Amino acid sequence: MAEHNYNLYFSDGNTWTKMPPPAKEGINDGDNLIWSDNAGRTANGNFVGDIKAVKKSITITWNVLTYTEFLTIKNAISRLGTPFIKIKYTGTDGDVHIYKGYTEGIKGTIDTYTGNGKVKGVSVNFVEQ
Question: 9-128: which CATH topology?
Protein backbone atom coordinates (compact mmCIF):
# COMPACT_ATOMS: atom_id res chain seq x y z
CA MET A 1 0.00 0.00 0.00
CA ALA A 2 1.31 3.45 -0.91
CA GLU A 3 2.15 5.96 1.81
CA HIS A 4 -0.69 8.38 2.54
CA ASN A 5 -0.24 11.99 1.36
CA TYR A 6 -1.68 14.22 4.09
CA ASN A 7 -1.33 17.50 2.13
CA LEU A 8 -0.63 19.31 5.39
CA TYR A 9 -0.97 23.12 5.57
CA PHE A 10 -0.77 25.69 8.39
CA SER A 11 -2.33 29.17 8.21
CA ASP A 12 -2.05 32.34 10.26
CA GLY A 13 -5.58 33.21 9.11
CA ASN A 14 -4.45 34.91 5.90
CA THR A 15 -2.20 32.55 3.97
CA TRP A 16 -1.93 28.76 3.82
CA THR A 17 1.66 27.46 3.94
CA LYS A 18 2.37 23.90 2.79
CA MET A 19 4.27 21.90 5.40
CA PRO A 20 6.79 19.14 4.77
CA PRO A 21 5.14 15.70 4.64
CA PRO A 22 4.72 14.22 8.13
CA ALA A 23 5.99 10.78 9.08
CA LYS A 24 4.03 7.72 8.03
CA GLU A 25 1.01 7.69 10.37
CA GLY A 26 2.35 11.06 11.55
CA ILE A 27 -0.96 12.77 12.31
CA ASN A 28 -2.66 11.47 15.43
CA ASP A 29 -5.82 12.98 16.79
CA GLY A 30 -7.73 12.53 19.99
CA ASP A 31 -10.19 14.29 22.21
CA ASN A 32 -9.36 17.05 24.68
CA LEU A 33 -12.12 17.11 27.30
CA ILE A 34 -13.08 20.48 28.78
CA TRP A 35 -14.44 20.03 32.29
CA SER A 36 -16.69 22.22 34.43
CA ASP A 37 -15.17 24.59 36.98
CA ASN A 38 -16.11 22.31 39.87
CA ALA A 39 -14.34 19.25 38.42
CA GLY A 40 -11.91 17.41 40.66
CA ARG A 41 -11.56 14.87 43.43
CA THR A 42 -13.66 15.00 46.57
CA ALA A 43 -12.34 14.19 50.06
CA ASN A 44 -13.29 10.50 49.62
CA GLY A 45 -11.47 10.27 46.27
CA ASN A 46 -14.45 10.29 43.93
CA PHE A 47 -14.23 12.42 40.79
CA VAL A 48 -16.98 15.00 40.26
CA GLY A 49 -17.75 17.43 37.43
CA ASP A 50 -19.27 17.62 34.01
CA ILE A 51 -17.77 17.58 30.52
CA LYS A 52 -18.59 20.97 28.95
CA ALA A 53 -16.95 20.51 25.55
CA VAL A 54 -14.84 18.12 23.49
CA LYS A 55 -12.06 19.68 21.40
CA LYS A 56 -9.61 18.04 19.02
CA SER A 57 -6.06 17.42 20.18
CA ILE A 58 -3.71 16.68 17.27
CA THR A 59 -0.06 15.63 17.33
CA ILE A 60 1.92 15.87 14.10
CA THR A 61 5.33 14.19 13.84
CA TRP A 62 8.11 14.20 11.28
CA ASN A 63 11.04 11.76 11.18
CA VAL A 64 13.97 13.72 9.74
CA LEU A 65 13.82 17.24 8.29
CA THR A 66 16.32 19.62 6.80
CA TYR A 67 16.87 22.72 8.89
CA THR A 68 15.01 24.73 6.21
CA GLU A 69 11.96 22.43 6.53
CA PHE A 70 12.16 22.76 10.33
CA LEU A 71 12.15 26.56 10.01
CA THR A 72 9.13 26.41 7.66
CA ILE A 73 7.14 24.72 10.41
CA LYS A 74 8.55 26.89 13.20
CA ASN A 75 7.84 30.14 11.33
CA ALA A 76 4.27 29.05 10.53
CA ILE A 77 3.38 28.45 14.19
CA SER A 78 5.53 31.04 15.97
CA ARG A 79 4.20 34.36 14.74
CA LEU A 80 4.06 36.87 17.58
CA GLY A 81 0.67 38.48 17.96
CA THR A 82 -1.01 35.52 16.23
CA PRO A 83 -1.82 33.05 19.01
CA PHE A 84 -4.16 30.93 16.90
CA ILE A 85 -3.42 29.11 13.67
CA LYS A 86 -5.42 26.87 11.36
CA ILE A 87 -4.31 23.46 10.21
CA LYS A 88 -5.64 21.63 7.18
CA TYR A 89 -4.91 18.10 6.12
CA THR A 90 -6.38 15.22 4.15
CA GLY A 91 -7.20 12.33 6.44
CA THR A 92 -6.77 8.68 5.55
CA ASP A 93 -10.53 8.69 4.94
CA GLY A 94 -9.98 11.16 2.07
CA ASP A 95 -11.81 13.99 3.88
CA VAL A 96 -10.20 17.41 4.31
CA HIS A 97 -10.04 18.41 7.99
CA ILE A 98 -9.62 22.06 9.07
CA TYR A 99 -9.21 23.14 12.69
CA LYS A 100 -8.41 26.45 14.39
CA GLY A 101 -6.44 26.37 17.61
CA TYR A 102 -3.10 26.86 19.27
CA THR A 103 0.16 24.94 19.53
CA GLU A 104 2.63 24.34 22.31
CA GLY A 105 5.47 25.22 19.95
CA ILE A 106 7.74 22.91 18.00
CA LYS A 107 10.02 20.23 19.45
CA GLY A 108 12.93 18.48 17.78
CA THR A 109 16.56 17.41 18.11
CA ILE A 110 19.10 19.21 15.93
CA ASP A 111 21.81 16.81 14.76
CA THR A 112 24.94 18.86 15.38
CA TYR A 113 27.18 15.88 16.06
CA THR A 114 27.39 14.73 12.44
CA GLY A 115 27.14 18.26 11.06
CA ASN A 116 24.57 17.22 8.46
CA GLY A 117 22.09 19.99 9.31
CA LYS A 118 19.20 17.62 9.95
CA VAL A 119 16.54 17.88 12.63
CA LYS A 120 15.16 14.62 14.06
CA GLY A 121 12.06 13.71 16.02
CA VAL A 122 10.14 16.90 15.25
CA SER A 123 6.62 17.23 16.65
CA VAL A 124 3.89 19.83 17.06
CA ASN A 125 0.97 19.46 19.47
CA PHE A 126 -2.17 21.31 18.45
CA VAL A 127 -5.33 21.91 20.50
CA GLU A 128 -8.56 23.10 18.90
CA GLN A 129 -9.81 26.50 20.07
Answer: Elongation Factor Tu (Ef-tu); domain 3 (2.40.30)
With 0-12 / 13-18 / 19 or more C-beta atoms within 10 angstroms meaning exposed / middle / buried, residue 69 is middle
Condensed to tens digits (0 to 9), the pLDDT of residues 55-112 reads 999 999 998 898 889 889 988 888 756 778 899 998 878 899 999 998 888 887 776 5
Supply φ then ψ for residue 95, to 5 degrees: -80, 145
What angle is formed at CA 58 by the lines to CA 99 and CA 28, rounded to 5 degrees?
Answer: 125
Q: Please state the φ and ψ torsions of residue 50, each to the nearest 5 degrees.
A: -130, 145
Type of residue at 50: D
pTM confidence score = 0.79
